[in-house]
Amino acid sequence: MDRILAKKEYSLRRFWVEPQDIIGPNILLQGEVFHHVIDVCRQDIGSKFELISEGFAYFVKIIAISKKGATAEILEKREIQKLPLPHIKLAICVPKFPVLESIIEKAVEMGVSEIQLLSSQYSFIKNAEKISDNKWERWLKIIKSATQQCGRGDLMKLHPPMALLTWSQRLNQNPKTMCLFGYEGDQGVVEIKPHLKSLGSRSLDEAWILVGGEGGFSHQEVDALGQQGCQAVTLGAQVLRVETACIAMTSILKYELDLMRG
Description:
The chain is α/β, with parallel strands linked by helices. It has helices at residues 31-40, 97-109, 133-150, 164-168, 219-227, 242-256, and strands at 14-16, 22-23, 26-30, 48-53, 56-65, 69-79, 87-93, 114-119, 157-163, 177-182, 192-193, 206-211, 231-233.
């Protein structure tokens, strides 16, 4: 049971469980995961599938079901590969919520380690008070669902909004941190690198991708970002939607930083 199967894969359903539900040789299914496994996916006694939690996948078999919970026996355990360095992180000036939800889902699948929400001059919201508890619960569910689907071993972190200019002052305090933001505005405001490939390579712990809201960045914000060492880059002649820019920059950066390896 305690064997670590480093490379064995399963073409099975996966579900996220909290670490406190792993008790000795068994895992308890309760609450929402119990409802999803038993009621939605109609698993029964004897059903086998994977449960994932904090860096490990557990191949299990249901051995007992009650009205409010189930017990799964751990048959095998394997370690899930951690996200390689540098960690890619997204900072997003909050767009409309349906757009943000799409970004959250795709960011999990793309291996983004965390998302920092920002309020800016042109962002959809200006402060955290406008985000209800129900929204946060929904976004955390999206993170868990995407984690299950892609088989990650960790939950992507999602941080409450803070002011863009306040956040920018914390950038690049670590020499192994890089920050890029897409900008198609006035060349006189900030130096724009012609493309991501021109940035060169260096040893990094984290690479931040900053994406503006539907209205982009103000000149004041762009100037402040440049002063904090955040590099403006172009993504081509076409103006991209927020969600497209997030996916494009993440994909390009993963390739350039050699993070596509299995």
